[in-house]
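Render this sequence as a predicted structure.
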Amino acid sequence: MTVDLKPIADKSRLLFEIPLKPMQGQRFQPTGFPNLGAATFRSAKGDCLLVESAQSMANRLELTCWDALKQEPVAPLSGISHVRVERQGKFLTDSILEAHRINSPYLLVNNTDKSFFAAIKAEVDGMDEGTIDRKKLAETLLKYDIGSLLHGAFLAKKELVGGRLRVARAISAFIEAEGVRIAASGGVKNDAVNPSGEAKDGFGNVPFSRDEFTAEKITLYVNLDLSQIRGYGLGAEAEALLVQMALYKLRKLVDGDLRLRTACDLAVTTPTISSSNVSGFSLPEARDLEASLKVAIAACKGMMVTTTIQFNDDFKKGKEDKEAVEGPAQEAEVGEPA
């Protein structure tokens, strides 16, 4: 069975609110931020907590598309556009895996192989002055890295239209908890050899405290911006591919591993995942999405390419080069990709 997208054909958004619970027990460990810790806040619903941010969820959704053993997209997504990076002829990374996707320094700050940078620059030639040709930008991203049209892109390198090439996320997801309370705990790092050794050097017994949380309610919120996808102007076939890819990523995420951290292992609590704003529309099953994706990818075959480039530069890049691609340093989550 293929997926019927007619129920959402005239909708601007497709929303989901998916209930979660800890896989075991009641406690869970939320994401943490430097100089902040857990992101707690108060709302009309009481004490709340950000369990997982939009930026982290974007990375997790991308990983549902990746076969880590074969170092390539999963079989149902074979044929989508992405950029593979090799070092000394062996796999190094891929635009699907990079936190900044197509804006990765391994793609754009690359003295070994400038072919990809040159290709992108040629595609956006003529946009240096005036407004950005959004359709041309979307066509370029579809051609080289379709994931950037779903998870966003910011080509910050000044040589590329002055660093003005941006696309917002078309699919956003985050996890929040309501009615939260701190579950304080702790422990000791034991050193049976030298219990009174210098802790700053890694020796000795070192006690530590740890805050986990309990919650009355944990929810995964998902927002698929259908209007943005249509606004790319890529045509019906590419739009259908993007929507089905987004739904496939979500289905793989909720069917797979929601172990976000060592002490944050979550499970979906409902057998059917229904849209919260489109009556009667439920998240399709993986087998149906896989069948539809095969057809959709074949229909867009001429719009996408798989690119392989080499990166044999010294890994130690200057701050100036790094910021030219990534922009100023952003606050990242503790233990999570930016």
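Summary. The two ends are 37 Å apart (CA to CA). Residues 189-213 form one domain.
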